[in-house]
Amino acid sequence: MKKIFTILSLASLVVLSSCELNLYPETGYNEGNVKVDQDAGESQYSTREDMKGLRDAIYSSWTKDIQEKGYLDWLVYAECRADNAYGGNPGTGELMAIEANKQDGENKNVVRDWDWYQGQVSNCNNIICNIDRIKEADPSMTDKEYREWKSEAYCWRAWNLFQMSYIWGDIPLVNTIPPAITSENIEDVYHLYYPGRTPIADVHAQIIGELEYACQNAPDTDPANKHLFTKAFAHGMLARIYAEPKAGLQDWNKVAEHCAAVESYNYKLVDDYGQMWAYDEADAVRNTTESIFEITWTKSNGNWVWMMFHRNAYNPDDSYSWIKWITPSRDLIAAYDAEKDTERKNACIVYDEAIWSNYYPGDAYAFMHKVPTNASSIILMRLGEIYLLHAEALAMQGKFAEATEYVNKIRTRAGIKEISAPSSQEAMIDAILHERRLELAFEGFRFFDLLRHSFDKTKAIHDAMPEQDSYWQPRFPLTEETVFMPIPQTVLDNNPSLVQNPGY
To answer: For residue 49, what are the domain limits?
Structure first.
């Protein structure tokens, strides 16, 4: 009789640290290496309603785990490794180790992030790998639903894979749901459960193809619901991807093309920068004209991520008993002050009393303020970013006057003086990166913005901060190897097909 062997769950298919399937004994496979399940192999998804449930779940999942794993940790990677923020709480060894460039394969935050991103990809695969079959079997699924749901899953998978490539470089690329392992196929499918790393160029090439599909088939923009993967979001992701040099696919013409496509969907800069994170007694602002994609909550069903950065603005009497994370740096505050950029500074940073004084006096402590309440959105893509990315593309094409126009749209909205077009590409890029720093502070861009143009400049900023600011903890020098995080050691132990990133 044919035996069927399975891994315990689909999530563990790609969350490679969660189980083992090593050869035991070394000469073959048996019940000592795998779980026997006579009922495995049949799909648990067979109807339109099943698919709708999976589609709805990709959105609801963002309101849960992304708060810590996909947002707090990402800000450490992007803001605290540059010059925008101190890690915050010295008691959190894992986060502080990343800020100090002292991370290793045992770092618990790196481990949990790997598992989380891989789990999200697995959820996307549930839709992508089943939707064609279900569309054929269940005529109640409309063509529009089919195209949109598939596009949304493509967008979601693309976002996760792109973030992973920032963090780890080459990553395992799992596009399928492997069949249940049987005594007859185990030699053929074993590698599907424990894949090796895929070159970043191949990962990005896949992302590009899937996003091009979404550009044509994703939902249209809904002004009342920006928690939606739309055609504009797909174009925005393509602009980000084509701007990155790591995969060898950088194309500034494509960046400009996709930025222009986003702009064609009639998004508008809000009149006042702080409006995007505003709130009143009734609720927080969401779904502004500038927002392209955001994660939304309500006051009654709110997020908890605010407590990582400040007190809930709806409860000003809340006491602080522990030090907050992503503390604004003196260097960033000085950059705002040098520009007399009070509007953006006040929206990004708030001063309050604290019982500690790690980086500032306890009675005038600076806090990151872009998630001020439990009803505040986390904005992952907005028009201000797209304008500045468009400026960057134009600058790289030598179109300095046009690039300056985009920069000045942002500066005018901030209420600060316009700049004149620089005479060199280097000066133009420096001006854009400076503007991105002030405009996009605490939105997860700074370290990777710098790295996109110059490792040497990124290293100089990274390594200099402890000498420049005595409140910054000592850092190990940044190397081209430690730009990437280590593959978690538990993952390496369980998957012999993977190799560690150099330098760890």
So the answer is: 4-274+380-466
- Are 389 and 240 a contacting pair, CB within 8 Å? yes
Tally of domains within the chain: 2
Which DSSP state fits 76?
A: I
**The pair of three-digit structure tokens given for residue 117, joined into one six-digit string:** 């991103």
Give the CATH number for residue 53. 1.25.40.390
Q: How far apart are CA 434 and CA 101, in angstroms?
A: 23
Tokens found for residue 225: 């619901």
Contact 79, 444 (CB under 8 A): yes
Are 504 and 130 spatial neighbours (Cβ–Cβ below 8 Å)?
Answer: no
Contact 90, 9 (CB under 8 A): no
Instruction: Name the residue among 443, 463, 478 with its Cα closest to residue 240.
Output: 443
Candidates 162, 113, 163, 98; CA nearest to 478 is 98
The pair of structure tokens assigned to 457 is: 């400049």
Q: Are residues 311 and 178 in the same domain?
A: no
Do 214 and 359 reside in the same domain of the chain?
A: no
**Has residue 404 got a pLDDT over 70?**
yes
Distance in angstroms (rounded) separating the CA atoms of residues 81 and 402: 31
pLDDT tens per residue, range 443-484: 999 999 999 999 999 999 999 999 999 999 999 999 999 999
Residue 281 lies in a domain: yes
Predicted pLDDT of residue 157: 97
Tokens found for residue 248? 């060898």
> Using H for helix, E for strand and C for coil, what is the string for 246-284?
CCCCCCHHHHHHHHHHHHCCCCCCCCCHHHHHCECCCCE
Report helix angle 383-396 to 252-263, nearest 10. Answer: 150
- Which residues make beta-bridge pairs with 225? 222
pTM, entire model: 0.91
Give tens-digit pLDDT for 353-363.
999 999 999 99
For residue 349, give the nearest of 357, 337, 361, 362 by alpha carbon.
Answer: 337
393 within domain boundaries:
yes
310: nearest Cα among 333, 294, 284, 328 = 328
CA-based nearest residue to 208, from 244, 241, 178:
241
For 399, 429, 451, 453, the CA distances from 433, given in Å and listed in that order, are 16, 6, 11, 10
My answer on whether 236 and 286 are in the same domain is no
Euclidean distance between CA atoms 29 and 181, whole angstroms = 10
303 and 452 co-located in one domain:
no
Same domain, 244 and 329: no
Residue 19 located in a structural domain: yes
pLDDT for 34 beyond 80:
no
Whether residue 401 is found in the same domain as residue 445? yes
**Helix or strand or coil: residue 157?**
helix
R_g of the chain computed on alpha carbons: 23
**297, part of any domain:** yes
CA 112 to chain centre: 14
251, 303: one domain: no
Region 397-412: what's the mean pLDDT? 98
